[in-house]
Amino acid sequence: MNYFWDLFLGGITRGSIYALIALGYTMVYGILELINFAHGEIYMIGAFTALIVASVLTMHGLTGVAVLILATIVAVFYAAAYGFSVEKIAYKPLRQAPRLSPLISAIGMSIFLQNYVLLAQTSDFLPFPNLLQDVLLPEAISGWIAPSEFIIIFTAAVLMIGLTLILKFTKMGKAMRAVAQDREMAMLLGINVNRIISRTFIIGSALAAIGGVLIASHVGRINFYIGFGAGIKAFTAAVLGGIGSIPGAMLGGLVLGLTESFATGYISSDYENVFAFALLILILIFKPEGILGRSSQQKV
Amino acid sequence: MDNVLEVKNLTMNFGGIKALDRVSLEIKKNQIVALIGPNGAGKTTLFNCLTGIYTPNAGDIMVQPPQGKARRINGMKINHITELGLARTFQNIRLFGGMTVLENVMIGRHCRTRAGIAGAIFRPNSTRTEENDIVDQSYSILEYIGLTMYVNDLARNLPYGAQRRLEIARALACDPQILLLDEPAAGMNPQETGELEQLIVRLWRERHLSVLLIEHDMKLVMNLAQNIFVLDYGEEIARGTPQEITQNPAVIKAYLGVETNAEIN
Amino acid sequence: MKLAEEFKKSFFVALWFMLLTFPIMVVQVNTIENVVIWRWHNIILSGLGSFLLSFCWQLFLRRKGHSTPAAQASASRLQHLMAEPRLYRPALIILALFALIFPFVFSHYQVNIMTTALIYVMLGLGLNIEVGLAGLLDLGYVAFYAVGAYSYALLNYHFGLGFWTALPVGALLAAFSGILVGFPVLRLRGDYLAIVTLAFAEIIRLVLENWNAFSFGPSGISNIPRPGFFGMALTPEQSAIYMYFLLIVLCLLTIFVIRRLQYSRIGRAWVALREDELACQAMGIDKTKAKLTAFALGATWAGMAGVLFAAKTTFINPASFTFLESAMILAIVVLGGMGSIPGVIIAALALILLPEYLRVFSDYRMILFGAALIMMMIFRPQGILADMRKKYEFHKMKDSRIN
């Protein structure tokens, strides 16, 4: 029972992070029909920025949750700025290009950002300072869950509820959904589509950065390559839930996290990534519209 | 069966919406038939069912090939239907933009030729002759349609009217017995439309093709069609000769308030 | 006036990038010695670099926007030069002579590098069938390369199979795996296909890495024999020269086959598939068949390249078959020009040889690949040498074709 509970909790924790990153994929896909291959790298840059801020501060004797929050804020700002710039450089000039062009450009951007961090920083794993030592959970739950797991699940839940509310009720959220439905019509109705696309990238990147910081402080170390694996897995989560669907991305993240956790726990940990990739292939082949997505009929 | 194409009670649903509701239609050999109706009436959906892009939910589509028995083509693969002698054009032009005009037509010959990988690599005499035939036949189709001046140009660089005609040329290269034209005159000026009309008449008279035509240009429809089917909201509301259609109250009602009403009289 | 505006814009871009690159490029934390290193000079580099880049960017973008069909035609002057027999024939002869004497003039080391580059020429040309001709963006091409390499290594280890038997077997096995991958992805749209092929390749690599009983895991397989030469024992130098000529011959064979395929009924069907999948089917082309043949033939070349790679290095392990390898082969095809054989050859040689000979490049190799992929898509999507469609010549009279 205890082992099961650990795996379950591990799965939900992982899944929450996947969901946070998957939201970026799904929102961008909803609007541009583009797999933003560089999204995993944004997550990595978010984690790296937070690590740099947190390390500099800890070396100056500061520590605690406040440092983590500050690092997160800086990371969110930088990830959003990178996301914004990536869109302007690599995707915006290719709005009218054939479908595969922006995808190839995205792959290029992903390789570029990975190697940018590799060259400017290091290829080694860097330790993320432990800033959650003095966090104490109430006794009722402290036996069940570790502080960092609790924080990840809680934060992810709050962010996802917040995003849902923004998309549902704010003017910007409505505009986003309108652009996702029909870009040209939205443009005719006076929505500034380019601005909406930029904001989509900013929001998606910010969420990915938060995911990056949370996982970095949970796992305790990062390197330049973490974006690749996380990116593919988050994309899997997005497809699993139904790409383009916000609740789908959340559900997909959790399902993937749990699958991975139980598969590695009960079958074999050597093949951790194989499970995720196999799941991705199976979904794309047998149910490409995902759990919550609607199937789209090709326009002729 | 002296009909080359018979559609019986064809029904197509998208989610809860009935895009086609028990539609029936016949085309006789060497007959020009027009399919008209307001926008969203289900005309292109019917085309997509006929050419295998959609699989209809109910009903039958029967094709009578030149030789052999009539075949039911519901759910058949798109390319098999083309092989049975149905070739189409698209409402929103779908040429192979990065290929030359000649190559576009040569693609149409694909389903009438056989050369495979080994043939391509070793190029035996049979493949050589076949390849030469493809080029010759494609070129003569271009001559027939009047596009030889563009023969080596990329399809995407052609003027609009020429692109529309190239779509017809490409479809002709498939050796169809029924040609399905989806709004071939859309966006054309009166002169181009006139040329198109002459072309369709020639195809009918000289090549003995059957033609199914979706068109909004009523003058063109009335001049060409021997039989007209009218769709509205996925249902057939009228059928008959051009004279009968112009006087049909249901048709006038369906078009009333729409500007094309003026054109129909 | 315009210049001043662009100057201003570039200035702000530079400021933005200085801000953007600040944490990653300036701050470096050394967690072992607990010190922070501030590399302030980097921010100046970043500012200057982005200023210049932004300036060129706007210049190119403006040029691209202004270019008319006439300008585009003159832009392909290089191609017209290349199509001129008086020029390209002597050039080809010189090239052939150079290729012939190369291994006897240059060192063992350089012959080895050239051999590697030629393996990439094969890989590029093979992927070109899938991506360039048929428009199937395969991000897992390296999987077929791995199938070829491991078939030789394992068949040799277990059954003592020689190179010449392994070459067709590896090619066949790769073709077969191409069909295996191709089948399930048939229905998928372009971008999904890309991701699924990537996932397939990663699964294959992970299995090779973890299934020790089968593939000897991360430590790989060593002592793979070099190809035999009529049973004679060759010194490593001789063997390298032999490999080099072997690859020259195989590359020529590849070029011959792919050229023939490109202008055949099958090749045209691939290009039609790339241009418009639905219209292609409506013209009577069997999409399934076209996609599967493209996958199978593309994979065949990767398989052969894999066998050659294993024979050349005599040691393989899963680390040679990562996603970055796929990305590099893709970069070769994209840079060279999708569908263009000479373009792909030039790109393969350039991308492999430049980092070897210009040491500066080798550190920055991957970052430059990444940047190149983006730039090519934006400024020159047709690649350095665009694919030229075949022109057919006709006399005014019907049926008297010259070509």
Task: Report the major sheet of chain A.
Answer: 2 strands, antiparallel
Strand order of the largest sheet of chain B: 6-7-8-3-9-10
Low-confidence stretches of chain B: 259-265
The name of the CATH architecture of chain A is Orthogonal Bundle
What is the CATH domain class of chain A? Mainly Alpha
CATH topology of the largest domain in chain B: Rossmann fold
Question: By helix and strand content of chain A, what is the structural category?
Answer: mainly alpha
Query: How large a portion of the residues of chain A is in β-strands, by DSSP E?
Result: under 5%
CATH superfamily of the largest domain in chain B: P-loop containing nucleotide triphosphate hydrolases
Shape of chain B: globular
Rounded mean pLDDT score of chain A: 88
Mean pLDDT of chain B: 89
Total individual domains of chain A:
1
Number of helices of chain A: 12
Task: Indicate the proportion of strand residues of chain B.
Answer: 15-25%
Oligomer: heterotrimer
Principal-axis shape of chain A equals: globular
Structural class of chain B: alpha/beta
The span between the termini of chain B is 35 Å
Q: How much helicity do the residues of chain B have?
A: 25-40%
Secondary-structure arrangement, i.e. CATH architecture of the largest domain in chain B: 3-Layer(aba) Sandwich
Question: In brief, what are we looking at here?
Answer:
The complex is a heterotrimer of chains A (300), B (265) and C (403). By secondary structure, chain A is mainly α.
Report on this model:
Chain A has helices spanning 2-32, 39-59, 65-91, 100-120, 139-142, 147-169, 171-181, 183-188, 193-219, 226-241, 246-266, 272-286; strands spanning 126-127, 221-222. Chain A is mainly alpha-helical and 300 residues long. A two-stranded antiparallel ribbon of chain A has the order 1-2. The model of chain A has no long low-confidence stretch (mean pLDDT 88). Chain B has 265 residues and is of the alpha/beta class. Chain B has 2 domains: 1-85 and 176-265, Rossmann fold, CATH 3.40.50; 95-175, no CATH class. Chain B has 11 helices and 10 strands. In chain B, strand 7 (178-182), helix 7 (190-206) and strand 8 (210-214) form a beta-alpha-beta unit. Chain C has 403 residues and is mainly α. Chain C folds into 2 domains: 2-63, no CATH class; 102-379, no CATH class. In chain C, 75% of the residues lie in helices and 2% in strands. Chain C has a two-stranded antiparallel ribbon with strand order 1-2. In chain C, helix 1 (2-26) runs antiparallel to helix 2 (40-66), helix 12 crosses helix 14 (287-313) and helix 16 packs antiparallel against helix 17. Chain C is globular. The chains are: A mainly alpha (300), B alpha/beta (265), C mainly alpha (403). Chains B and C meet through helix 2, helix 3, helix 4 and helix 5 of B and helix 11, helix 12, helix 13 and helix 14 of C.
